[in-house]
Amino acid sequence: MSVALLLGACSSGGRDTDQTGLAARASPTTSEEPSTTSAAPAETTTSTIAAVATTAAKAAAVTTAAPTRAAAPTQPPATPATTTQPRTTQPPTITIQNFAFAPQTLRVAVGTTVTATNNDAALHTWTGDGASPAWNSGDLTTTMSYSHVFNSPGTFAYHCARHANMTGSVIVG
């Protein structure tokens, strides 16, 4: 809606005007000659124009306001795919130190070679349990190592033949 259009309608007070700009009133008489009156008082016209201009400005502000951005739709958190993770294995080494095997329990995959290293000043062994042990390192002096390959799954207990309190196990699978 144009402000000029509104102003034009208000300046005549809603009445028809003749060529002189004076408002014409329809006369209740049948005479062909229209009667003329003076224009509306200046204060009324000015206040009407100001009111129309204010209304037009408000309408323009409403229609030209920047569109607001709708909040982005939230999506549910992604569900991780379920997969079977391989069993974590520790490095295939056993340290003999402070009259103990570390780690005391070691997990490895089938076919893994495990190495035991003596870091004590005392002699130690790394010997599989049982009457016929699957492996026996013999005496290991300081910094000596012994390796054994675990080719079948299972839990294999071991000990130090010189120190009965030193025990551990290797879990293969």
What is the fold's blueprint, element by element?
Blueprint: H1 3-11, E1 24-25, E2 35-36, H2 42-63, E3 93-97, E4 100-102, E5 105-108, E6 112-118, E7 127-128, E8 145-150, E9 154-160, E10 163-172
Parallel strand pairs: 3-6, 5-10
Antiparallel strand pairs: 1-2, 3-4, 6-8, 7-9, 9-10
Task: Tell me what the structure shows.
It is a single chain. This protein is α+β, with helices and mostly antiparallel strands and 173 residues long. The protein has two helices and ten strands. A four-stranded mixed β-sheet has the order 4-3-6-8, with no helix packed on it. The protein is elongated, with a radius of gyration of 52 Å.
Sheet with the most strands, sense and barrel status: 4 strands, mixed
Bin the helical content.
10-25%
Helix-strand pattern, N to C? HEEHEEEEEEEE
Instruction: Calculate the mean pLDDT score and round it.
Output: 72
- Rg, alpha carbons: 52 Å
Q: How much beta, percentage-wise?
A: 25-35%
| Beta-strand segment tally | 10
Low-confidence stretches: 1-48, 61-65
Judging from the principal axes of the Cα atoms, what is the shape?
Answer: elongated
How far apart are the termini?
83 Å
Strand arrangement, largest sheet? 4-3-6-8
How many helical elements? 2
Q: Give the helix/strand class.
A: alpha+beta
